[in-house]
Every structure is written in C-alpha cells, then in structure tokens.
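Why do we bother with a discrete structure alphabet at all? Because it lets us treat a fold like text: something you can write down, compare, and reason about line by line. To make this less abstract, here is a complete entry for Tick transposon. Read it the way you would read a sentence in a foreign language you are learning: slowly, and without expecting to understand everything at once.
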Amino acid sequence: MWTPVIGKHVFPQLYKDDTCKLCREERATLYHIMWDCTKRPQEARESKELPPEIQAAIVSKDYETQLQVIRLATELLERQVGTDPSQVQDTRKKTPRPTPIIIHISSSQTPN
C-alpha cells in the first residue's frame, strides 16, 4: 500500500516528508496508519503488525468484510496525502516511447 514513507522516495513533489499528517510525530508507516494514531497512539507508535481486526478482515471469506477493510484502509491512507496533486508540477524526466512497427502478413504470403 502507498504510504508517505514510500511516497517520499517515489513522488517527493507530493510527499515532502514521511511524517504522519495527523500526529506529526511518527513516520507514517503502514502499521502506524492502520492503527490510527488519533485513536490508539501507543499501538500506532510501537506495533510492527497490523491491528488484529484488520488482519482478520483481510483473510475473511466474507466479501462484504473484505470490502469494509479495503474502504477503511483507503480512508486511513487518504488522510495522509500531502500537497494537492493538482498543484504539483511533475518534474520527472519524460522518455519518449518508440513507435511500434506493425507488420501485416496475409495467408498468401506465408511459406508452405
């Protein structure tokens, strides 16, 4: 999952640092974000695993439970977005793609 810890290295124009946007104290790792530092700060700070209820939902056979955990994870991750992406100028080097060569072979041109 995309977190500010990853974003800082991949898209530094959007993620200036990897600090949690909510508590502004810890790195915004996946574990920190999923523990929700606004509700469970100690676990968010110390845990190196996902919360048990999220772990259980991930492996659940119930489709609705899986959807709920995806929605929750998306909601928690969206709170960590840095600058508005529409306000960021992409400075990555653009590499032109080669034009593909298309060869048409009709059945009368194939060897016997």
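What the structure line is telling us, in plain words: The chain has a mean pLDDT of 83. DSSP finds five helices and no strands in the chain.
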